[in-house]
Each structure stands twice: as C-alpha cells, then as structure tokens.
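Usage example:
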Amino acid sequence: RKEVEQDPGPFNVPEGATVAFNCTYSNSASQSFFWYRQDCRKEPKLLMSVYSSGNEDGRFTAQLNRASQYISLLIRDSKLSDSATYLCVVTGGGNKLTFGTGTQLKVEL
Amino acid sequence: DAGITQSPRHKVTETGTPVTLRCHQTENHRYMYWYRQDPGHGLRLIHYSYGVKDTDKGEVSDGYSVSRSKTEDFLLTLESATSSQTSVYFCAIRGGLAETYEQYFGPGTRLTVT
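Running the assembly step on the lines above writes:
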C-alpha cells in the first residue's frame, strides 16, 4: 500500500463548479498535512496547510479526518487558472515529507 | 519567493559521466532537500541536509551523493550517471519565518542521461 494515495484523475469540470479531492495516508503517526499545487513542468507550490479543525483560504477548504486517515480539498467556483495537479503531502518520519502522486484538475469553459 | 535557485536548469549527459547539480538559497535555512520526480512516483527524497556538513539519506539515495560546505549551497552529485537517473530534480528548503514542516521548492533541473 502506498503511504499516500490519491485518485490521479483527471477531473474535468466546468468553470464555476465545485470539485473535491480526497487523499488517504497510511502512517497514523503523521502530524502535519499539506496540499501543494503543481503546474505542468513547474515546481510544486504550497497551496495550504491542513489543520485538525479544518481551514479555509478563499475558495479553497481543507479538511483532515484523523480517525479515517484522509485529507480533503474542496475548490469552489473553479477558475480556468485552477487547472493543475494537486499533491497531497504528509509528514513521515523526522523531517521528511511524503508526497502523493497527485490529482489532475482540468477546468473547462 | 523562497529565494531558491537551481543550476543548471537543463542538462543532457552521457551514461557514465559525473554530474553535479547545485541548489542555492539566500535565506539561511537550515534544512535542504533533494528530490526526484518521475511519472507515477510523485516526488521521492534522495538526500537531505540539516546543517553544514550534516546530511542523511532519503528513500532513493543509491547512485547519488551530496555535500553541503556552506549554508547556502547544497550539491547533488551523480558519480556515474545512468539512464535510470533521467528525471526532474527539485531542491527544497524547509520552513518560513519559524521552523515548520512546510517545504518550498526551487524551479527544478531537467536531466537527461543518454
């Protein structure tokens, strides 16, 4: 079983739609969780950290369910510019991060 | 902008040649990391550093070595490049204003081994 699992997609959605991604992780000791965004042929960029209480940043909402060991990302009112690959990231041992392989989102007119 | 640069940005080399990739940061971060990214695998940690001359292996360290003689520079060396090392290599630093687990990435180096 992979340490971090994501549906690779692609998720094809119309502009203005709401879309949600889930991610499951296997290490119950993981303490920190993140969503990164990666555009084609670019470096990953931190989108948001995920807190136990859930957190929101504009159109983006992240949730953590420790009991079921999954993380979610909700994007409301999708924009064309949201098209990218979204990486789920959790802390592994020590100072290391474990990355999912990403979920591809395509927002269409 | 985390002030991270990587050089070269693109390189084509032949099997068996040595290759060194450089990561440079301007903000005095303690932790630095080297990853490779390949289709279907996500980002995988090669080596990381937790201070000058302090380094440790990641999950895919075979065939790679690193050095950190200054806080700002973290070098990744492929002693004898193989075709399986064709990949995109990203350097990262850890943390922002305070020590956190968040990592910030450089622009990447595309390496092709022929």
